[in-house]
Amino acid sequence: MILVTLGLLLSFAIGALVVWMLAPRPQSPVVVVLQLALALGIGLALTTLTHFIALHLFNGSDARLLLLDAAMLIGLCVVSMVTNRSGPSEDMGAIVSPADSTEFTPRASERDTLLHRIILAGTVIACICAATSALSLFIGRPHGNWDAWAMWNMRARFLFLAGPDWRLTFGEEMTGVHPDYPLLQPLVVSRLWVLLGDDSTIIPRLTSSLFTLATAVVLFTSVARLRGMVVACVALTILVSSPVVAEEAASQFADMPVAFYFLAATVALTSAVNAKFGINRLLALAGLCAGCAAWTKNEGVLFTAALLVSTFVVMCKSHGLRRAIKSVIVVLAGASPMLLLVAAAKLSFSWKNDLFHERGMSHLLALLTDASRYRAFGHWFAELLPGIISPWMLSLMALLIVMSGWTARSPGHTLESIRNPHCLAAALTLTLVALGYTLIYLTTPHDIGWHLRTSLSRLILHLWPSLLFVIFSGASALRACPQNPVWHRLIAGAKQFSR
Amino acid sequence: MSALVLATVITLTGAWLSANQMLTLQNSDASGDPYRAAEGDARFATLRPYLKDVRVAGWMASRAIGASEADEVAHSQARYAIVPTLLTSHGDHDTIVTCFDTDAELDAAMARDHLELIGKTSPGVAVVRRPAK
Questions:
Q1: Of B126 and A275, which is predicted with more confidence?
Q2: Is B79's CB within 8 Å of A142's CB?
Q3: I need a surface site. Which of A105, A221, A331, B133 has the fewest CB within 10 A?
Q4: Three-state secondary structure string covering B19-80
Q5: pTM of the entire structure?
Q6: Closest-CA residue of chain B to A396
Q7: What is the pLDDT of residue A65?
Q8: Is residue A43 over pLDDT 90?
Q9: pLDDT at A178 over 90
């Protein structure tokens, strides 16, 4: 257990150092917590790199991989010292427009203070209930859901137990369990199994919990820094009260890590577009997170492509063509370590995907022009969605969006939040990914109903935290939410303490 | 309706939904594993001692893997449980993991294909070997 703790601390240290190098210096406790949560996920991803190398070098892996992790940490320390910034640095995603600032929001009245307390209590209750739900699922399903033991953890067991035969798990015999799938999740789990010396079910449950917790923290803190604690509480409550979150957290699939990396990349991109200084570093951070998503699931490759397109479009709109091209190169550079891993794994083992293999363009076009497939997609989507996200919650969120549109047009407000590139970049990325998912369903070689039934909840989970971030960081209706004086005092106290 | 009131309504709805999900899981078997993976893992993991130094093993069962969901689950759970041995989906290997419903089916298959029993852990679940040619 000591080695597992050491391994996790090393991961965390590596992630923290990378975030330290790429993100602006935090100016508030909220951003410190945000960066620590980002560090957790990024660190876990980066240590899979050393584990992957160790598997190749040592034909299996043992506790020596901690030496490789330590070497990576030292190397990053050196790079950090060489590239140390001396110029001005602002807070991560600092609010540029005074109109956005919480300092300019109205003072809380007595009624508002009561509502703040209700919101805080509701959020705490929702979090406790969601954690209890996830815990009972973790206890009831120690090996996770079907795909966890049939694919993700089975592969992790091979990486841990098979020694020089670990490549067997990518052979032709394993075609049914997607040998082309990226390896972040199995590598994270098997690395900790190696350090523990046992394939205990505690480890995949622990890693799933860490990614879920990190996702919740990143959403809360990223919204809090833009819109304040009240709005962050609302966003967090919606996330944890979605039935799909506890289910997928306990499933031990790779979808929660994907959701985390999508959200992390979206937050970093938003910060980059919004920042005055350190834009390139934030873009590289966004690229790195997108690369981590690509190393987790194939959907991450689509996300990376969408991120590149939206970066280009938004930077072109706000800074011109030259800056847009440079930004795309920077994002690609950030993503490159993980994309190289993806390419290496696919070239070494298998790149054939059941959705695209041996399917001509004419066949795909025929499927795309078949109206019955759109009807089937619409039918199943409408039938399945209420089981994934509560219709009550969706209705309330729709009302919020309508209110935002109305507020943005009312006197005293501008359309800034709608036109603001920080919203546009993230929204465009998510729209492109959603479009890509829809196209995949429309052209699936499987029965479309079966495909949707078995995967829609997971694909929605990928986008859900990022979508909540976009909605709540862009919702102008909530800009007018008065801030809770109690929280202001808490934050001021924390700032005082940190000084 | 002010934004803060709407935010409060959303939060309370979220708290209610979370509590509802928690109570549903507590008051029913919904949190249990419908595929009983822990039992499946334990059932087939007992074959591991008979599979030492076997890299790849074949599979024989009462029905084909795709015949039903239960048959697919049994094969996937066996494959998960006997790692680091790779379990294939057919019986064309020297060493074979069996998952028959009864011992009688296992005995019949052994007699038909001239298989030797290496070890058996529960009715119909065994590791068998083709005799050396």
A1: B126
A2: no
A3: B133
A4: HHHHHHHHHCHHHCCCCCHHHHHHHHHCCHHHHCCCCEEEEEECCCHHHCHHHHHHHHHHHH
A5: 0.91
A6: B10
A7: 86
A8: yes
A9: no
Cis omega (within 30 of 0) on the bond before B84? yes
State the CB neighbour count (10 A cutoff) for residue A491.
Answer: 17
Residues of chain B neighbouring A477 (CB-CB closer than 8 A): 3, 6
Say how far apart CA A362 and CA A62 lie, in whole Å. 49
Residues written for chain A: 499
- State the best of A143, A200, A402 to mutate against chain B, taking most chain B CBs within 10 Å: A143
Q: Do B38 and A142 touch (CB under 8 A)?
A: yes
> Can you tell me whether residue A273 is helix, strand or coil?
helix
Element (H, E) at B119: strand B116-122
Q: Which amino acid is at A175?
A: T
Decide if B13 and A392 are in contact by the 8 Å CB cutoff. yes
Shortest Cα distance, chain A CAs vs residue B90, angstroms: 10
End-to-end CA distance of chain B: 84
Give the SS3 label for residue A198.
coil
Task: Say what the ipTM of the complex is.
Answer: 0.92
Confidence of residue A48 (pLDDT cuts 50, 70, 90): very high
Mutate to test the interface with A, among B16, B31, B39, B75 (most CBs of A within 10 A): B31
Find the CB nearest A153 among B12, B35, B80.
B80
Inform me whether the pLDDT recorded for A483 exceeds 70: no
Using a pLDDT cut of 70, give the percent of chain A over it.
Answer: 85
B131 touches chain A (CB under 8 A): no
Residue A240 sits at the vertex; the CA angle it makes with A236 and A244, to the nearest 5 degrees, is 135
